[in-house]
Amino acid sequence: xxxxxxxxxxxxxxxxxxxxxxxxxxxxxxxxxxxxxxxxxxxxxxxxxxxxxxxxxxxxxxxxxxxxxxxxxxxxxxxxxxxxxxxxxxxxxxxxxxxxxxxxxxxxxxxxxxxxxxxxxxxxxxxxxxxxxxxxxxxxxxxxxxxxxxxxxxxxxxxxxxxxxxxxxxxxxxxxxxxxxxxxxxxxxxxxxxxxxxxxxxxxxxxxxxxxxxxxxxxxxxxxxxxxxxxxxxxxxxxxxxxxxxxxxxxxxxxxxxxxxxxxxxxxxxxxxxxxxxxxxxxxxxxxxxxxxxxxxxxxxxxxxxxxxxxxxxxxxxxxxxxxxxxxxxxxxxxxxxxxxxxxxxxxxxxxxxxxxxxxxxxxxxxxxxxxxxxxxxxxxxxxxxxxxxxxxxxxxxxxxxxxxxxxxxxxxxxxxxxxxxxxxxxxxxxxx
Length: 433
Known about the structure:
There is one protein chain. By secondary structure, the protein is an alpha+beta fold. Helices cover 40% and strands 18% of the residues. The protein has 18 helices and 15 strands. The protein has a five-stranded mixed sheet with strand order 13-12-11-14-15. It has three domains: 14-170, NADH Oxidase (3-Layer(aba) Sandwich); 186-322, no CATH class; 331-430, Nonspecific Lipid-transfer Protein, Chain A, CATH 3.30.1050.
């Protein structure tokens, strides 16, 4: 039978931060902090959360530590089992805490820690709450250049959970006034796809395509490979036996990451930084070098920067070309997702401004400017365009998804170009999928 911590409630039906902390720690969390849904920086989260939980007043963010040595193993079974087991702990803590809040007369829900379920929204946001910005606002850490939250004591070896409640909690937590990430760049050295850049920028698509090969759109790509194969022999030419079995393993026992090396090698955090401080060279030899030398398959989209990066940095690794499966379903989604697909290497020496004008099912305009491997998107038509694309929104999406021929769309004037059409090819090369 679940045991509950008695919450301290005053006459105004508010709860002290200490009472919430006591509840979460007894339930099994390693740290927690609460923050109002109105907290600065959480405006976008509030807008989305209130659609699902209109009575929400407070976010309670908590962390669960993982076994660092399991994460640092090059045997992915050890690391992934740790992710799964810790993930179950997060969900169990969430349920225990929400039941406790409910028994005290409050409303509370806990979105799942790990894998999003609102798939009707795919490929746009399929989760109710984004744990990372809430954790930052609640003082649980700061995102490092590897885009993972680093707890000041526990480092990157944590999983995050979030409770949403109507309880008004006194003495909300504050964001950290420092960043535990000291930019040692070990995550840059260990990343097998080159997604983490030395200047702090991040290539989402390259990380996603490899690391999430057995999740979501990676699974969709695998299904389409089956559908496109005329028989078992053709399928085996495209998919090795170990890849088929690995997909079964993920389906049967939970999706497995292909790499979480950035978390594994991160030395930040008061409780785990000691070996790095005592002997940096030994730390690198023990934690970074094994991942760099590991023989493995890297999954990458044709034309992405990953191909050149792996060839230069990881001669022991081989590349397999796949589809990322990241296909937009709306014209607005196409524009919004461009920063996540952008390949800086492919954009080198390109200096062009693109105007997009969409009509039909969606009516809006946008400007995309690519300059010196930098990308900027803006609402409306800004400046002079080197290429102007006017398109029926549905036709444009059908073209991007491979369901509509561009030449036919041009001949029927469902898509119209004004400017150098070669710039459209250059544009496509910067956003391979």
